[in-house]
C-alpha cells in the first residue's frame, strides 16, 4: 500500500482559524439577539457562518454524520432563512427562527470541531473507501448472493401486511404510519439492513456496466417503488437510492480498475463526476418532492399533479422551504403557551415499553404538534424541524441541544473502522428525520443502521473465503 493520502493542511494553524471563525460567528448571533434584532448583525453572523462552513468542510469526512446532517438541515432551511432575512420587518417568531437556526449551525460546527480536532481527517476515509470498494468489487459466489437477502426479505415482510390489509389500493398514509402490522415493522428494519447491500450493488454496477448495471439499476428502482406503494412514504426509498448511488459514484471516483486492484490511494475527482453527482442529487430531490403530491392523488383516487403547484408549495412550506412551516409551528406553540420541557428527548427511554402496557405513555412530539396545529385526521403528525423541536422544549436556550448533536456526530466520525462509511450512508434517512424534527425514531433507526453496517462488513464483505 502506498502512503496514505493526506488532504488538508498539516499545520494546527488551520484548525485554530476554523475555531476562530466558528466562535466569531456565534458572537455575532449572540450580539444580534442581545441588541434586539439589529439586522446588520444578523447579516454579519450569516456571512461568517458561511465562511466557517467553507473553512471546515475540507477537513472533515465526505461520508460523515457531520456532512449528511448539515446537508439535510441547511437544505430544508436555506430558502426560508434567506427569504425571511430579506423581509422589511421581522415578527418576534421570525426573529427567533432566524436566530436559533443560524446559531444552531454555528454551535453544531464549533462543538463538532472541538471534539473532532484533526486537520487532516480525510486521509483515513480515502483508505477505508478504497478498502470497501476493493472488497465489494471482488465479492462473488455464495457471499454475493447474500447481498440480495435483506432486499427480498424486506419486500416479503412488507407485503404480508399489505395483503392482510386488503391490498395496495386500500392503504392510506395514516394506516402505514402507525398501525400497519408487525411484519411491516420488521420489513422497515430490513430496509435499513439492505443499505450496505445496495452500496455493494452500486459498486458492482459501476465496475461491470452493461447488462449487470442495467439489471441492478432496475432492481433498485423496483425495490424503491415497492417500498413507496407499501408504506406511502418517501423516507424509506431515499436511503436505498442514496446507498446504491453512493457505491456507483464512489467506484467511479476511484478512477481506474488497476487502482482498485493494487490498492492505490487516490480518488480522481473530475468535473464530470461533480456534474453527475449534482444531476443525481437534483433528480432525487425532484422525484422525492413529486412523490409527496402523487401520494395524495393515490389516496384520493383521482386528480393529477400540477407541477407549478408542486414547486410553489415545496418552496413555501414543503421540502425546500420547510422553515416556513417551522415558523408557523413555533408561533402556534408560543400562542398556546406550550413547552414540552424535554419530553421530545427523554421519551427515548420509554421506547421499549409498548403502549398496550402503558396506555398513558408520552405521545410522539410530532403528534402533539399535529393536534395543536389543528390536525383532524387520526395519526396526523407534523415535525417541527430540529431547531423548532429544541425551541418548543426549552425556548431560545434549546439552541444548546446542537452542542450535544455536534459532540455525538464527532464521536461517531472518529470511529476508525471501514464500516463507518456503510454506517454513515445507512444513516442518511434517520439523519434527515433528525434534521426535520424527529428524535426517538431517528435514534432507533441509527442503532439499526450501525448493526447492519457492522454485521454486513464482518460476516459478508470481509469474511475470508473458505
How would you sum up this structure in a few lines?
The chain is 71% helix and 0% strand. The protein is built from 22 helices and no strands.
What report would you give on this structure?
The protein is mostly helical and 466 residues long. It contains 22 helices and no strands. It has 2 domains: 12-120; 134-310 and 414-461, no CATH class. The radius of gyration is 23 Å and the shape is globular. It starts with 11 loop residues before the first helix and ends in a 5-residue tail after the last helix. Mean pLDDT is 79; it is low at 1-11 and 260-265.
How many alpha or pi helices?
A: 22
**What share of the residues does DSSP label as strand, in percent?**
under 5%
- SS content category: mainly alpha
Ranges with pLDDT <50 over ≥5 residues? 1-11, 260-265
Intertermini distance? 25 Å
The radius of gyration is 23 Å
Quickly count the domains: 2
The largest pleated sheet is described as:
none
* Outline: globular
Per DSSP E runs of 2 or more residues, the count of β-strands stands at 0
H-E order: HHHHHHHHHHHHHHHHHHHHHH
Helix amount: over 70%
Overall pLDDT level:
79
